[in-house]
Amino acid sequence: MSHSVGQVAGFAGVTVRTLHHYDDIGLLAPSERSHAGHRRYSDADLDRLQQILFYRELGFPLDEVAALLDDPEADPRAHLRRQHDLLTARIERLRKMAAAVEHAMEARTMGISLTPEERFEVFGDSDPVQYEDEVRERWGDTDAYRQSRERTASYTKDDWKRVTEELDALHLRMADLMSAGAAADSGEAMDTAEEHRLFITRAYYDCGHEMHTCLGEMYVADPRFTRMYEDIRPGLAAYLRDAIVANAARHGG
């Protein structure tokens, strides 16, 4: 069974002009001609076209494609193995490219314009990007979420390091107060809790005392937050929550 040049162009997703060019340069000469002299392609011609298009998709120039396909020593199975190897390598490259684009999209969504290496340097294994889907689902419609994205959109690596170091210092100060035996509703603990609230307001979004209290409760209710604070000092999650609640109460929150 043979096919017209128009049919083959439709099958292969190429133009008739491309098929004419392949014929002109001897890359794909149709096996038959109609009585009127029109090109007719056999199934074997279609197999060759498929191989041509595969190598072209991988970026091989036409002269190299011709040399590969016309090699008298080449085994058809060797062509398939070669194509499989090339395709597998390309899939891996594309996978890595897709992962890089995905990271860029996540970072842009979070307003964190850092490379994965920079994010690891700043956040370690606590990279906030990994929680973006959950954050967006839980708070995506809130003013706080939108405000946080706007405020952090222009942060550089140094900005994020400064913010992270400031928060770490606040956590450590609160842990030291706890270890020293200061009550969670002591003046020092409540003052540190207030600094924590003001830090969130400066760095991310306007955090009133009611919002701050909700955060404090989440630090205890969400095992991930609890674990983070427990790693700093056992008991810190509940102590920080209690200090936040006490501070909100003294401010009428």
From TrEMBL:
**SMART domains linked:** HTH_MERR (SM00422)
Q: Pfam families annotated for this entry?
A: MerR_1, TipAS
Domain called HTH merR-type: residue spans: 1-71
Keywords from the UniProt entry: Activator, DNA-binding, Transcription, Transcription regulation
InterPro entries xrefs: DNA-bd_dom_put_sf, MerR-type_HTH_dom, MerR_fam, TipA-like_antibiotic-bd, TipAS_dom
* Top-rank taxon, per record: Bacteria
Under what name is this protein listed? Answer: MerR family transcriptional regulator
What is the species of this protein?
Streptomyces prasinus
Taxonomic lineage of this organism? Bacteria, Bacillati, Actinomycetota, Actinomycetes, Kitasatosporales
